[in-house]
Amino acid sequence: MTSFLNHLITFVADHAWLGYLTLFLAALLEAVPVVGSLVPGSTIILALSALVPGGELKLWPVLASAAAGALAGDGTAYLIGHRSQREILSAWPLSNYPRVVDQSVTFFHRWGMLAVFFARFVPPIRAFVPITAGALGMPPLQFYGVNVPAILLWAPAHVLPGVLAVTALHEYAGMPHHEHVGKHLWMFAVAGAALILALAVWTIRRRHGGGFIEPGRPAE
Questions:
Q1: How far apart are CA 203 and CA 205, in angstroms?
Q2: For 38, which DSSP code?
Q3: Rounded to whole angstroms, how far apart are CA atoms 70 and 25?
Q4: How many CB atoms lie within 10 A of CB 8?
Q5: What percent of the chain has pLDDT over 70?
Q6: Closest of 18, 11, 119, 9 to residue 73, by C-alpha
Q7: DSSP state at residue 220
Q8: CA distance 109 to 71
Q9: How far apart are CA 168 and CA 62, in angstroms?
Q10: How far apart are CA 212 and CA 220, in angstroms?
Q11: Is there a cis peptide before residue 93, judged by omega within 30 degrees of 0?
C-alpha cells in the first residue's frame, strides 16, 4: 500500500486533474456497499491532501472533489435502496454480508436520522447505512438533510489533517508562530470539531454496543 501511494502521489504531483479525479473516485467508491469496505478511500484522500501545502493541488478543489464523490456515492446507494426497498438487503452482493446488513439495520433503527450522520465517519458502516436508509423508507428530504451536512464536515476532517501535518513540517521553522497559527486557525478549528465528533461517535458505539465487524468476517 505504501509503494502504491508513493507512486500515486508522485504521478498526481505532475497531473493535478488526475488528483482531483482520484479524490472524487476514492470518496465515491468508499460509499459503495461492499466495495467501500475494500477501497482505502480515506487513506488515499489523506495522502493526496498532503500535496496541498506544496501547491500541487489546491485546497478548495480537493475539498470539493472529496465532498462531491461522497455525495455521489451516498446518494446513489440511497436511491438504489429507496427504489428497491427491503428486497435489496437480501440480494447479491449484500446477501454475502448478512451480519453487517443486520447490524446496519439495527444501527438505523436505534439512531434514526442520526444514523446517516454518524455512519459517514465510521467505516465500514458508511458503505451500508445509505442503502439501508433507502431500503427502510427514509424520505429523500430527511436523508439529504442529514447526509449533506455530514459530508461537509467529513471532507475537511479527512483532508485537513494531511494539510496541517505537511504545513507544519515545512513552514513552522520559517514562519513566525503567531502568523502561522493565524493563517491556519480555521483549519485547526474544523479539525478539532471533527476530532470531537469522532470521539463522540466512538463513545456512543461503546456505550450502546454498536460496534460493526468488517465484511467477510464469519458470523459467530
A1: 5
A2: T
A3: 9
A4: 16
A5: 70
A6: 119
A7: -
A8: 22
A9: 19
A10: 13
A11: yes
In this structure, which long-range contacts are made by residues 172-175, counting pairs with CB atoms below 8 Å and at least 24 apart in sequence?
none
Q: Which residues contact 125 (CB under 8 A, 6 or more apart)?
A: 100, 103, 104, 107, 119, 212
The span from the CA of 154 to the CA of 120, in Å, is: 7
- Structure-model confidence comparison of residues 209 and 94, the more confident one: 94
Pairwise CA distance, residues 56 & 17, whole Å: 10
pTM, to two decimals: 0.75
Q: Distance from CA of residue 142 to its chain's centroid?
A: 19
Half-sphere exposure of residue 200: CA atoms within 13 angstroms, side-chain side: 11
For residues 27 and 62, is the Cβ–Cβ distance under 8 A? no
Q: What is the pLDDT of residues 36-52, one digit of tens each?
A: 877 788 888 888 888 88
The residue extents of the domains of the chain are: 2-208
* DSSP structure string for 72-113: HHHHHHHHHHHHHGGGGGGSTTGGG-HHHHHHHHHHHHHHTH
Q: DSSP H helical segments within the chain, as ranges?
A: 2-14, 16-30, 41-49, 59-84, 98-111, 113-119, 129-135, 140-171, 177-183, 185-208
Most confident of 104-113, 171-180, 182-191, 210-219: 104-113
Q: What angle do CA 19, 24, 25 make, to 5 degrees?
A: 100
**Which residues have CB under 8 Å from 103's CB, separation 6+?**
125, 210, 212, 213
Cell of residue 133, nine digits: 436508509
